[in-house]
Amino acid sequence: WLAHLQPHFEKFGAQPPSQLREIYRSFLEDDAMLQMLIQERPRVVSFHFGLPAAERIRGLREAGIILFASATKPAEARAAAAAGVHAVIAQGYEAGGHRGVFDPNALDDCLGTFALTRLLVRELTIPVIAAGGIMDGTGISAVLRLGASAAQLGTAFIACPESEADTGFRAALMSDAAHHTIITSAISGRPARCLRNSFTTLGSSAAVPKIPAYPITYDAGKTLNAAAKAAGDSTYGAQWAGQGAPLARALPAADLVALLAREMA
User: Fold this and answer.
1) What would the mean pLDDT of 150-154 be, rounded to a whole number?
2) Higher pLDDT, 144 or 207
């Protein structure tokens, strides 16, 4: 994989890492993170990519923390409910960012937000939060009518001035690129939906080798993006965005939330 990226690094006068490091620690094994959460007691802790061990869930619940977990299919949602989470996030295939699949090597049924929400609402006794492709009050209203207890929006807030999206990402989001998203594992090592750009192209070429596992692949991706940005090229970034990206609005977050509420009404 590093050899595959070598020409792209050379294009910007840089070198890839000599080896890939794990730049993100997992909650599955980070006892310090668990103790920090139990001590600080945030109102909500949300899991992605599966579930931690039963004793970790029990510790968070005993601290009075509300637990969410993403699910992309009914079997994952059932596992989350059985593990003791308080609400399940129904992440449709339209969603931007990383797919919350528990096993990246298992078959992905690619369920859309509407179908997944209805399936989980019918089957679960805990609240279902719909996520994926929801960009305005009409979309929120639609998933509530489907039985969701709430809607979760991500891409809708990327263009807000409060977000940390860089100038290149914002420009791409407001361009024709917003109409063309793709699921790729090339950036991080796990499937994720983002705007098509130079990185997704190099990750989908016919000559691409086996992509390393998450999260070590991120080490190369972030290094290449930094080199490209230093040379004035912002097309190698992790421009996570869902299929509703063309509906993004560049408003302050508070104004956007107020507008969403008016649209719902």
Assistant:
1) 98
2) 144
Nearest Cα neighbor of 92 from 114, 77, 76 is 114
129 with 80: CB under 8 angstroms? no
Output the furthest CA–CA distance in the chain (Å, rounded). 56
Dihedrals φ, ψ of 5, to 5°?
-85, -15
> Hey, what are 142's tokens?
């639609």
- Beta-bridged to residue 89, according to DSSP, are 70, 129
Q: Cα–Cα distance between 67 and 170 in angstroms, integer?
A: 32
Q: What single string gives the DSSP state of each residue in the chain?
A: -HHHHHHHHHHTT----SS----S--TTT-HHHHHHHHHH--SEEEE-SS---HHHHHHHHHTT-EEEEEESSHHHHHHHHHHT-SEEEEE-TT-SEE---S-TTSPP----HHHHHHHHHHH-SS-EEEESS--SHHHHHHHHHTT-SEEE-SGGGTTSTTS---HHHHHHHTSGGGG-EEEESTTTSS-EEEE--HHHHHTSSTT--PPPPTTHHHHHHHHHHHHHHHTT--TTS--B--TTGGG-----HHHHHHHHHHHH-
pLDDT in tens, 234-261: 999 999 999 999 999 999 999 999 999 9
